[in-house]
């Protein structure tokens, strides 16, 4: 299956500092494993529908031109997503050191399973810092195979506290914020990134867009926001309480009309994936957009334009 991203054209780096969207599907991606729904069937043939599991890449270069990379969430597709980050950033692959740091938002499978591929059977990394909450730290240390990687110092866990400023990469600061999301194994973080010219909010999983979440959205230039379901009609036998996410039809009414809001973490059931759907038309007329795999944003300067579409200038599906 061809994947948009690495090797598709432009010579990196795309900007001195930036954010690249590495996956815009829900935890299991689109097509969903073992699913024969019409959307998944089409997704095998149509890469405007296909979505990798959720992840974000961040990069920046220092004054000597050395490029550093941060991976936000380690999905089961970490191999292709690290290659996409490399292609966007121009950071050279180095043995045992495919990325400079990792930040984990929470302990649901699409956000951490990929850590396993950094162990002995895979990249065999050495001392990669993994930033996460205290509960996520406890989860990784308590569960094989992930605890093996910590015991062998392939990964070095670093607990980060919500609300505290973080120096993530040269010229890129950030902070994490607790958001409501079903927390069987860990709490859930949203990530705020601040470059010299632009701020980005990453909130792929959240139960609802309440006043605090809407305030966070209003304080960032670019917001990647939970768009898992368009409406609760997609849940088929499950209830909103079992898998709470803010239905996109309600978010579209709650969000102010402005540039820079992109929905991500799209479930295979969400009709917004289909270009001809009335739900896609509703999204387009709301002025908001659907994030796509490989899309990137410059962090360094507002003059660089708010959004850049994937390599080879794929026309943005929702605009
Ligand atoms: Zn998720
Ligand atoms: Zn499906
Ligand atoms: Zn989740």
How many helices? The count is 8
- Tell me the helix content: 10-25%
CATH architecture: 4-Layer Sandwich
Q: Which series of helices and strands comes N to C?
A: EHEEHEHEHHEEEEEHEHEHEE
Remind me, CATH topology? Metallo-beta-lactamase, Chain A
Q: What is the first-to-last residue Cα distance?
A: 26 Å
Keywords:
319 residues, 8 helices, Metallo-beta-lactamase, Chain A, 7-stranded mixed β-sheet, binds zinc ion
Q: What are the SSEs and their pairings?
A:
Layout (H helix, E strand, L loop, with lengths): L16 E7 L14 H6 L11 E7 L5 E6 L5 H12 L11 E3 L5 H4 L15 E5 L1 H9 L3 H6 L3 E5 L6 E4 L2 E8 L8 E7 L4 E5 L7 H8 L3 E5 L21 H7 L6 E4 L13 H9 L2 E2 L5 E3 L21
Parallel strand pairs: 3-4, 4-5, 5-6, 10-11, 11-12, 12-13
Antiparallel strand pairs: 1-2, 1-14, 2-3, 7-8, 8-9, 9-10
The structure holds zinc ion (3 copies).
